Amino acid sequence: MSVKKNFGALLVGIIFLVVGGSYVVARILGYDPPFFFDGWWTLLLMVPAVINMVEAGVNLGNTMVLAAGALLLCWEQNWIRNMNFTMVLSVLLVILGGYLIIRAFTGKKLRSKDAISNGQWRVDGRDMPSYTSIFSSINVKSGARNLLSATCNAVFGRLRVDLSDVAVTHDMTIFCNAVLGQVTIFAPKNVKIVCKNVPLIGGVRLWADSLPADAAAPTVTFECTTIIGDVDIQ
């Protein structure tokens, strides 16, 4: 898997390592812990938004979340005169209004070029997809003819991915990362399932049926990381 496909988990891991490590070192040396400045909590909005932009492209949702985080940080730091909650809300309304005007003129709804609408589920035919739900709920059903792997991320959101109709002919790895969110995977059928997990104040639950270890069938390995989140494999 490329670094881009695992960018979310990589970036969150680096941030946790730097912030947590700096706090411990500062306390040991007798200094005030760094990074806990006025408005530090706005990073919990901006960082997931940037992750989503890198992995899924720029869209209305992640743009508004990033803008909200940046404006709230300016408010906390008093960087902009007369900045208040009404100003933050007004800027977000301007972004939303601009999007609606553009959509009205183009007559199109922004969507992934690799997916089509199917009721409440999107159908995706990519062989190596990467799905990310950020402050939202997303349902995706795989229609891949030759699924090679997949990455599923939920950051402050809920992601459901249906792989139950995918025909698996070779071993593969599915990466699942839940950061303050929930990932639910409907596993392929007639395969051997192996679950490797790193739960950090979270959980990974394997409900899916697996063939015996000695069966002549491909193996699907789920590598799961949860940070105050959950992964369900059904």
For this entry, give a set of tags.
234 residues, 2 domains, seven-stranded mixed beta sheet, five-stranded parallel beta sheet, flat
Strand content: 25-35%
Biggest pleated sheet: 7 strands, mixed
Structural class, from secondary structure content? alpha/beta
User: Could you say how many structural domains there are in total?
Assistant: 2
Low-pLDDT runs of 5+ residues are 108-119
Average pLDDT score: 78
Using the CA coordinates, give the radius of gyration. Answer: 20 Å
> What is the number of helices?
4
The shape is flat
Order of helices and strands: HHHHEEEEEEEEEEEE
Helix percent band = 25-40%
What is the CA-CA span between the terminal residues?
A: 23 Å
Strand order of the largest sheet: 1-2-4-6-8-12-10
Please give the number of β-strands.
12
What report would you give on this structure?
With 234 residues, the chain is α/β, with parallel strands linked by helices. It has 2 domains: 4-106, no CATH class; 115-233, no CATH class. 33% of the residues lie in helices and 30% in strands. The protein has 4 helices and 12 strands. Strand 1 and strand 2 (121-124) form a beta hairpin. Helix 1 packs antiparallel against helix 2, helix 2 (43-56) packs antiparallel against helix 3 and helix 3 (60-77) packs antiparallel against helix 4. It starts with 6 loop residues before the first helix and ends with a strand.
